[in-house]
Amino acid sequence: MKRQELRNCIILMLVWGLAWISSTRAVSLTGDDLSAWREPTGQWQVVGEAFKNPQNEKLISTNPGTGIIVNGPTGKTSNLLSKGEFGDVEAHVEFMVSKDSNSGVYFMGRYEIQVFDSWQKESDYPGIECGGIYQRWDNNKNPKGFEGHSPRVNASKPPGQWQTFDVIFRAPRFNETGTKLSNARFEKVIHNGDVVHADVELTGPTRASTYNDEKPKGPLMLQGDHGPVAYRNIRIEPAGPNPFFAFDNAATDEKHKTLKEQVAMLKELGYDGISSRGGEHLAEMAKELDEHDLRLFSVYLGINIDPDQPAYGPELLDAIEVMKGSNGMLWLFLQSKKLKPSDPTGDERAVEIIRDIADKAEKANLRIALYPHYAFWLERVEDSLRIVKKVNRKNVGATFNLCHWLRIDDEKNMKSLIEKAMPHLFVVTINGADSGGKDWKTLIQTLDRGTFNMRRFLTTLYECGYTGPIGFQGYGIGGDAHDNLTRTMDAWRKLHGLGK
Question: Do 346 and 337 contact (CB within 8 A), yes or no?
Fold first, then answer.
């Protein structure tokens, strides 16, 4: 392996935390004692059993033993911070609260997933619910609390019962001077088996965090002063690579005609989900994905910016209804029969349309990612960024499409363009390609093929701070879909040091 390739490989491993704790792959924070936690530990104690107090439902009773930690007899003690500090993690946490009690799990000591007795309760404000991402706080704002995120569903169990969180968390990224490149992100939060959050960014620490600044790593914190709570089986391990999904055009062939067959294949091969085209099949696709614990990352839809044409069809509104509450993306390509690609005279009409859709999408907790496409009016990443800035909506961002970029740009511009896109970059698409290719056969291949240096591209992407989803473009490849997706997944894992 050449020195530059070795450097790139090491960077990829470090970015995902595959080497963040020597040779240890997982860390347990609950066991025989409190040695995994910083002093002082206050009234936190190790017990063998925890259960609802039969005389007072607002307290927790315990029996001697090990394996469970409880925040004292009254639930009013100091917060507990781990000795270990972590970046990107996959965490499993089991907890129990008494009636009306309140706690929280703070990733990096800064970003809280709320622990609360939400059993059969209405929400007072976004983020207060169990499984909610707690709000940020600014005394100079009105209202002072902001950016709280309610869970999609109330998955809470009654007080006194054990509950679970399974969380994939991405730490914020910084350059060598300490400038933040990208926000912290809850990639996925599962509460008692239900996905309650997907791909939620946090612009800063949530309220009552231990730290007000942001760093690449930090401790796990358990809130201890808001009421009785017990924890067990807290496990932390590296999060692994970014989410990797496939376009639906890569999952279709003569052997995989039905949505059920396609989704089952993606699940079998280890993909995180799919990007689908809009249409009457979309609701069925969403249902199949839910049943296989996979995500509908985006829906590919067209916009016409010509004033004498309808801006979009009913399939866009149908997609919003199907994806409602998921924080998924409407993947919008923009066309015109009257204007040439990249012609800025179309900007005003494009901005008007996108703002209209963005308002509808925001009400449904959805985002918009503009999709640059060769020979369309919105052709370049630069076009997307120009429109995103003019639209000026938090839920509108850009896409970096590798094959379309390679068709019209020079590879030497890769890093500078990614850096420009980063503040607005929602999603990236990749595939194998030949450097200098000029048609789709050379520019869209399975990930294990082509002369384009994919390792260099991914290294650059991650060095620039990208932590979001990445999709495999399979347009026009043809052949056996299972074989194509298998070789692509094998190449993806190999690129990240996870395969042979």
Answer: no
Please tell me the distance from the alpha carbon of residue 444 to that of residue 276, in angstroms, as a whole number. 18
DSSP string over 438-491: -SHHHHSB-TT-SSS-HHHHHHHHHHTT--S-EEE--TT--S-HHHHHHHHHHH
Q: Is the peptide bond before 143 cis (omega within 30 degrees of 0)?
A: yes
The helix (H) or strand (E) run that includes residue 224 is none
Q: Say if residues 497 and 9 touch (Cβ distance below 8 Å).
A: yes
Question: For position 22, what pLDDT does the model report?
Answer: 36
Angle, CA 497 vertex, CA 495 and CA 498 arms, to 5°:
105
Q: 439: which 2 tokens?
A: 């048609």
Mean pLDDT (whole number) for 45-73: 95
Domains of the chain: 24-238 (2.60.120.560), 244-495 (3.20.20.150)
Instruction: Give the DSSP letter string of 286-341.
Output: HHHHHHTT-EEEEEEEEEE--TTS-S--HHHHHHHHHHTTS--EEEEEEE-SSS-T
Tell me how far CA of residue 492 lies from CA of 12, 109, 276, 297, 394, in angstroms.
12, 32, 21, 18, 31
Secondary element (H or E) of residue 351: helix 347-363
Taken as a whole, the chain contains a residue count of 500
**What is the pLDDT at residue 23?**
37
User: Residue 424 half-sphere exposure, CB side, CA atoms within 13 Å?
Assistant: 26
Which residues contact residue 234 at a Cβ distance below 8 angstroms, ignoring those fewer than 6 apart?
28, 29, 30, 91, 92, 93, 94, 220
Residue at token pair 């404000």: 125
Q: pLDDT for 168-211, tens place per residue?
A: 999 999 999 999 999 999 999 999 999 999 999 999 999 999 99
In this structure, are residues 136 and 146 in contact, taking their beta carbons and an 8 Å threshold?
yes
Q: What is the pLDDT of residues 249-304, one digit of tens each?
A: 999 998 998 999 999 999 999 999 999 998 889 999 999 999 999 999 999 999 99
Question: In the block, which residue shows the tokens 């000029």?
Answer: 438
Question: Mean pLDDT across the chain, nearest whole number?
Answer: 93
Task: Give the angle 164-168-169 at the CA atoms, nearest 5°.
Answer: 120
pLDDT at 17: 45
Q: Is 0.90 topped by the overall pTM? A: yes
Confidence of residue 2 (pLDDT cuts 50, 70, 90): low
> 26 in helix, strand or coil?
coil
